[in-house]
Amino acid sequence: xxxxxxxxxxxKIESAPVKPAREELSExxxxxxxxxxxxxxxxxxxxxxxxxxxxxxxxxxxxAFSLFCIYVTLFATWLEEVxxxxxxxxxxxxxxxxxxxxxxxxxxxxxxxxDIVLMVAGTGAFLYFTFFAEAIxxxxxxxxxxxxxxxxxxxxxxxxxxxxxxxxxxxxVAAAFVVYALFFGLSNPAFSGRLNTxxxxxxxxxxxxxxxxxxxxxxxIVVFIIFGAFLERTGIADFFIQAANVVVGGFSGGPAKxxxxxxxxxxxxxxxxVANTVGSGSITIPLMKKTGYKPExxxxxxxxxxxxxxxxxxxxxxxxxxxxxxxxxGYSSIIVKAILPAILYFAGIFIAVHLEAKKYGLRGLxxxxxxxWKPLIKKIYLLIPLVLLIYLVGTSTRTIQTSAAIAIIAxxxxxxxxxxxxxxxxxxxxxxxxxxxxxxSVAAACGIAGIIAGTITMTGLAxxxxxxxxALAGDQVIIALLLTMLCCIVLGMGVPTTAxxxxxxxxxxxxxxxxxVPAIAAHFFVFYxxxxxxxxxxxALAAYAGAAIAQSNPMKTAFVSTKLAIAAFVVPYAFxxxxxxxxxxxxxxxxxxxxxxxxxxGIFGISAALEGYMFTNLNPIQRILSAIGGLLLIDPNTxxxxxxxxxxxxxxxxxxxxxxQSGKQxxxx
Length: 669
Known about the structure:
This protein is mainly alpha-helical.
């Protein structure tokens, strides 16, 4: 029997079935468990295995791409078509180097001939546009036959990268729109004319692949992804988990509260639902189970909290940058408007895990299990890059790109104070490479989203959909909101949030605007419901990843995570119907304070109704009254606030009397 190389042993471990995440697992077994979950639920983790010299060549290519992006976004004054096509060309090049054609055991240091052909052809197609951009722009609408072939090759090569790095669902959606455009949506009677128009729009114009999504990705998103890679290497994720343990670990159901707080903090750095769930969940889920939480609840709490990373300022998900571009407003404005909805989202989960802990009498961590706060205080300097980024972006002192670049330098500097997490030249290269690799899937999704948006625009399909839904909804905004929510959730089942938002921004957001919803509120609405698809059955990837760690039933976990994330289903209706929650037309600081207080009480009422517990178990009437009161309080309106508070106080008083009466009966017995 031949001896396996270390890389082949690694592949074997990564391909192994997920093992239970019990406390007795060794560190190596836990690492293998996490790797297996990531490979199963996160396509970005299914990469080629490079070792030795080829590994450093690949790392060098990826690191060079990151440096290229930083240089171009900060200093270059290239023609936009040149900048965008060169960016996509390098994405295609790296995509085939990093991602194999299928999952499973990969040969070490091996790339099949057909992948090399696809890589060269796809990269060459976009570089052709790069080097002949000015001539192509002056050429006009009529393409030569060879230019159509080049465009088809480029689109196909990018689509294949998207399939490997992102998944098939988004390509099915894109293919459906392309087929519609080619055979039904375009008016030119000749097929050659329709094909010419399609390729010209999707490949050679700024209305297809090179539209807003890929533009935002190349200008802003890539630099923030690189910043996140550097920040992770400072050890800030462990700092967040330890800090959360110190702050809330000792309370009832402490580990679940640690999961919520830590995931909210980590969400400021990373916008990936699955990666957040697996990363922090490998620590918090076993602790929650040990405390007494059911496996489904433990996995759901982590998944719901981790998914909120995409709505947590300042970094949020990639779609937030696209929103800023679509609305032509500063990203700092998006951050400010996202604050209150994000607080309500995490408050809802926190309240739910607290009520669950009280319901079953679950304890917190012991004093021995809670880390000492003094060493953490000494590491508070790790927050400097994040605070600096928030300051620079929030005050518009620098551009978004420059702010992220400065924050990267700050991350390197603060790492020097800790020898265990010091970012050495070698680790700088690794961080640059990790940032580049993380960009591939986002850029591929942005490119395909541009194709979808381009076909919708060129065929006038958006107007058809808008007119149809407006006619169906009549003058009832709530019906339009409900239909939009359903579209977002259905489309989001397997389609990345970035692509989901792009499609909804082109189709459904204008519907809401036509119905009188402010543009910013309409875009936030579709943004939110694109995100919750990661928790909503039947395709709830974040919930399934958490279930794999907890060894719980995936579908039950998905339903529980949906219940815990109820704020994400309620809050968007509130700010769509009354945009004050997004700080639109606010009359003063007092109004903001009142909105925060009433909204938090409302979330408490809804969470208690779903959990069925306050001071003791709620009866059906109490649950109904609590839910109604909570919903009324979410709507920032004086009358609804008064009625909502009265109902919540009524249920609280009723519950208190029941609890007191139960205590007397217990004492008498």
